[in-house]
Amino acid sequence: MTNKILIENLSLQYSDGAESLRDVSMEIRPNAVTVLFGPAGGGKSTLLRCLNRLNDLTDIKTSSGRILIDGENILDPKTDVIALRRKVGMVFARPVPLPMSIRENITYGLELAGENRRSVLDEAVERSLKLAAVWDEVKDRLNDPAIALSGGQQQRVCLARVLALQPEIILLDEPTSGLDPISTGKVEMALQELKKNYTVILVPHSVQQAARTADYAAFFLQGELIEYDDGKKMFTTPKEKKTEDYVMGRFG
Amino acid sequence: MTKLLSRNRHLVQRLGFTFITLVAVATVIPIVGVIIFIIYQGGSAISLEFLTGFPYDGMRSGGILPAIVGTLYLTIGTAIFSVPLGIAAAIYLSEYAKDNQTTRLIRLAIINLAGIPSVVYGLFGLGLFVLFLQFGTSILAASLTLSIMTLPVIISTAEESLRSVPQSFRTVSISLGATRWQTIRRIVLKEALPGILTGVILGLERAAGETAPILFTGAAFFLPRLPGSPFDATMALPYHLFVISTQVPEMPIQIQYGTALVLLVFVLTMNVIATIIRSRARAKRQW
Q: How many helices (H) and strands (E) does chain A have?
């Protein structure tokens, strides 16, 4: 199968010496959920933030390596980062509804991209809220402030906000860490639906969630990629001792 | 023994709170006192003629219209220069400036600017705007002088309210394909606006009440007509009050207090507007 993303010898170090990445190389396949898991400080979030160049906002000491998305190195300084971020959407750990209505949250990205036809925007609102499995709950109050929703609804609206831009890749950084099990289930179900059309990369908030959702799984420990395999194998018969210890809960 | 101690402790605490409450009440007394005193002394001077007429008889009779209009002009003039400049500086400091030597130097300058006595601003304005740039004693020169004095207040309050907008809004906006400037314009400025406006009004309010900075740069003792252009000198309420209190013999006291009352109402109105904006925004805020 061809890859959607090819990461080659990616190394990175923050100026404050926090989390870093050490010589990470991996392929990420389209139309699947790839899970990046491991204990905190392992470099999972850093890797996610490289994929949409959100790390540009952070103080980085050194970085090297390449990330090819559809064959193009997005770490190249000449990359159009605005276009990249429309193509690679991101959902954060804490739902952050922008201080506006539900509808405006969804249309925000499209309006920035210059879309202002009412019909197109309306269509995008309905389509993306349906895809994020939250349409039925909010369709009668699209003009209410998004902050008034419950945490689980907010997070799915945030997912819809990303989907409205019709990205190709969706990054999710512990998207269910603050949610109750029912909301978590809804988000996970939405992901299974989404992977049919998108490349989904998820940092799960637990090993259990990793095992439930992963088509492919990558285990990160202190900035290094320890093991990368098919999800089923990873959580039943890991090759590396460290992976096994972590999956079995011997450390973490 | 322990029981006694704990009762004692309660007593001390009660006494402490009572004392603090009394102090809090005591600080309000002078403010209320000043307002009541000025209304009592000056209230009788307020009439339509006082508010809309020119002074005559060596300012011992008539109204204070030119001073009211002058203060209005000066406040607007100050706003024109200091508001855009102040907000731009605040945006730079909060959103773009890196934490380095230069930024620290700029901040230090702003803090020190706020500490300079207002009469020094007056002298500076005289040297730069009136004489060197040859604006003459004029509304323009006085407004520019007041602007420099007001800038630190506007910059620091605006920067503070920009900074109080959660960082996560910026990150999310950028991640949705917004540029830095789009993020500032559509999210950050919009959320910080009430705080910025409050700072702007408080700064302008101070400018409206100042005498020293306009003393050498734009204030006139007496003018028979309203100023017609920014290059004319103008009368102004605080300076007029100073003049009729010290320079005019046999001045009727109610005219002095009437003038003070008008200035007080002018400034308090701005204050009330600022308070309303702030509390409305706080009720509507979504974070």
A: 10, 10
* A28 inside domain: yes
Regions in chain B scoring below 70 on pLDDT = 1-5
In order of their start, the domains of chain B are 64-284 (1.10.3720.10)
pLDDT in tens, B51-84: 888 888 877 888 888 889 999 999 999 999 999 9
Instruction: Out of B174, B179, B187, name the one closest to residue A54 (CB).
Output: B174
Task: Specify the number of domains making up chain A.
Answer: 1
Contact yes or no for B287 and A109 at CB 8 A: no
Q: Which residues does chain B have within 8 Å of residue A96's beta carbon, measured at their own beta carbons?
A: 166, 168-169, 171-172
Q: Which residue of B has its CA nearest to A158?
A: B172
| A27 within domain boundaries | yes
For position B20, what pLDDT does the model report? Answer: 95
Mutation pick from A52, A87, A112 vs chain B, by most beta carbons of B within 10 Å, is: A112
A191 token code pair = 């992901």
Interchain pair B172, A92: CB under 8 A: yes
- The reply to whether residue A54 touches residue B286, judged by beta carbons under 8 angstroms, is no
Count Cβ–Cβ pairs < 8 Å, chain A vs chain B: 63
Find the chain A residues whose C-beta atoms sit closer than 8 A to any C-beta of B. 52, 54, 57, 82-83, 85-86, 89-90, 92, 94, 96-100, 108-109, 112-113, 145, 147, 158, 161-162, 165
- Collect all residues with Cβ–Cβ distance below 8 Å to B220 and sequence separation of at least 6: B137, B233, B234, B235
Asked if A108 and B173 come within 8 Å (Cβ–Cβ), the reply is yes
Q: Are A124 and A110 in contact (CB under 8 A)?
A: yes
Structural domain contains residue A252: no
Is A40 a domain residue? yes
* Tokens 């991996």 found at: A26
B31-39, Cβ contacts within 8 angstroms, sequence gap of 24 or more: B35/B264, B38/B257, B38/B260, B38/B261, B38/B264, B39/B261
In this prediction, residue B5 carries a pLDDT of 66
Q: Which of B173, B177, B285 sits opposite A98 (nearest CB)?
A: B173
In sequence order, the β-bridge partners of residue A8 are A66
What CATH number does residue A21 fall under? 3.40.50.300
State residue B4's pLDDT score.
64
The pLDDT of residue B3 is: 65
Percent of chain B with pLDDT over 70: 98
Amino acid B231: pLDDT? 86
* Contact residues on chain B for A147, CB-CB shorter than 8 A: 286-287
Cβ neighbours for B121, distance < 8 A, ≥ 6 positions apart: B145, B146, B148, B149, B212, B213
pTM recorded for the entire structure: 0.84
What is the least distance, in Å, from the CA of B169 to any CA of chain A? 6
Domain that holds residue A125: 5-247
C-alpha B188/C-alpha B196 separation (Å) is: 11
Extract the residue ranges of chain A whose pLDDT is less than 70: 1, 18-19
Closest residue in chain A to residue B179, using alpha carbons only: A82
Taking the CA of residue A94 and the nearest CA in chain B, the distance in Å comes to 9
